Fold this sequence. Notes:
Blueprint: E1 9-14, H1 18-29, E2 32-37, E3 46-51, E4 57-63, E5 78-82, H2 91-97, E6 101-103, H3 107-112, E7 113-117, E8 123-127
Parallel strand pairs: 1-4, 5-8
Antiparallel strand pairs: 2-3, 3-4, 6-7, 7-8
Helix pairs in contact: 1-2
Amino acid sequence: MPITADTHVRLARPSRDLAAAERFWTQGLGLDVLYRSEGGHADEHDLVMLGLPGAGWHLELVGGSTLTVEPRPTGEDLFVLYLDGPADHELVPRMERAGGTRVSAGPYWDRWGVTFADPDGYRLVLCTRAWSND
């Protein structure tokens, strides 16, 4: 089966503290918990899948006592949401209250949005621009 514009996307990341990361993405950004699992065996991780019902993408965070990989985000590990306008004026303080840290992602992203580091240090950009394939 070929990859199409309707192909579903999962972005998976390790997390040191699933509860803190979940709080950032749900209480801060407003994503829903789509699925949750606690690893019951030595080869299983705890995980939480976050997203919006019906969306073609979701974010999977894995953690727990069996996690052997530490999060290692860089300044280029960006998850960008194109809002097609400024973020709601209450969103930025809500993201900070939920554990996000406002950071610079460089001149381009600072000009076109606001960037947060999540509790594991991965960056979320709320871009004021609209998505364009051009």
